[in-house]
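Sequence, structure tokens reproduced for reference:
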Amino acid sequence: MRRGSVERKTKETEIRVELVVDGSGKCEAVTGIGFLDHMLGHVAVHGLFDLTVRAQGDTHVDLHHTVEDTALAIGEALDRALGDRRGLARIGHAVVPMDEALAMAVVDFSGRPNCLVRAEWSLVTIGELPATLVEHFFRSFSSAAKATVHVRLLERGDDHHQAEAMFKAFGRALDRATQIDPRRAGGIPSTKGII
């Protein structure tokens, strides 16, 4: 079973993540940020990951540290679960609607962290989550997972719907990228022979 766990403790946050790649979509996320918990549920359900997240952070200061460190811990847990990435499909993409909003996500477990997010927001916050932290979540995940991540909003709408479409698409793209391709016969999915 491909599984990764991370405990991350700083002066600002204390986070524990358990992630099973080949799961059934179960999610138990308690970060102290309701909207983030809701989005993590979409990643798990649509990525078919089993994800447990327990986070405590200095939310009295700002939500930034908790969002950033949660994304770093999830990315690191997934990186550990994938190991040397033998047999991995490696690249996955998805286009997902949420009512009037439409989002695309593309993930490449290339070993090269890079992230590009394109979205516009009407509101400063979605629930209690600052809209700017949506992009920061994906950037932090990309860094720790050693993955290239592109997330783009193709059609605008209600901010909640936009974020939901983005996280659902991200979950689906992760699912496709983390699948084992039997045609690879356990080989490394790179012309370099290493990721």
About this structure: The mean pLDDT is 97. Strands lie at 3-9, 13-20, 27-30, 50-57, 91-98, 101-108, 114-118, 125-126, 129-130, 148-155. Residues 76 and 144 are 5 Å apart (CA to CA).
